[in-house]
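To whoever picks this up:

The nightly regression suite flagged Probable dual-specificity RNA methyltransferase RlmN as changed. Nothing in the input moved, so I suspect the structure step. Input below, exactly as stored in the fixture:
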Amino acid sequence: MAEKIPLVFTAQRRSMPPVHFADLDHDSRVDKVKELGLPAFRANQIARHYYGRLEADPATMTDLPEAVRPQIKQALFPDLMTPVNKIECDRGQTQKTLWRLHDGTLLESVLMRYPDRATLCISSQAGCGMACPFCATGQGGLDRNLSCGEIVDQVRNAAATMRDEDSRLTNVVFMGMGEPLANYKRVVSAVRQITSPAPDGFGISQRNVTVSTVGVAPAIRKLADEGLSVTLAVSLHCPDDELRDTLVPVNNRWSVEEVLDAARYYADHTGRRVSIEYALIRDINDHPWRAAMLGEKLHRALGSRVHVNLIPLNPTPGSKWDASPKPVQDEFVATVASKGVPCTVRDTRGQEIAAACGQLAAEERAASA
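Regenerated output under the current build:
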């Protein structure tokens, strides 16, 4: 049996960025503009620029008095993120961006264009403290939580990119760097801004937003009570506690049974089907008996309200972890499905651009060392 180890969810002590417009609720925005000597209606005016027109530079907000635009910039729109590297693949349909934050920490986001949608994968933390050994981000540890503004502005940047291509951003998934439910308050605030209609948000459907977690069971239950209808994705990766204690160390706190019980609570309270993420790792978690156990446990816990996304592992350089062969993958899918649980293989984008979450940041840190 794997040793039970304590887990630390708090970020290292690093400075959070200056307050940004997206960090504030409506009343706080009104207070801020009043502090600048402006009437209250300017707060909504600015919000329409940020969320509706996807503008984050007051210099372009021409219906604001020119004399106060520099003050608004300083007070509400500090520079949060600077692009360090942008790389593309899949004939330009996938774009990964590495950002440097105000304190030098790094984060990643990935924009994926499909014929019928455009999906942005965003980060909720700089690094990650969950310590999953097969994950590049987990290997690097946690720098800090992202501010709400840093989360939301990833979305605004991508939405502006799609607008410039005469298209639009349709889907957002919290599957980048970090454990979203370990930065709970800011992630929920960001979700509300992503999904609320302008002037309060970008107006993306809640059903097109996915929040992932490695299984922070109490936070899953809390999210279920928020009145949201986002998709919950649980990164399970293993159906048995003995192996999952090693692959996903948070399992030392909340067992597979407790995580699936929380997922059932989420499905009951939201009416949404839960997605189970399962990274298939050669000779580690790809055994037929584990596939059968996974299907049985999911069917018992969630019935028809569950779907398994099988993820071919994208190995990181120097890692001992590798992807399962395709015949093993196909047998795993068939076995899970035989237990009455839909199981599909996720489309893998960006294989040639350090696609595994955290790889690009790790390469940048190594190059700067």
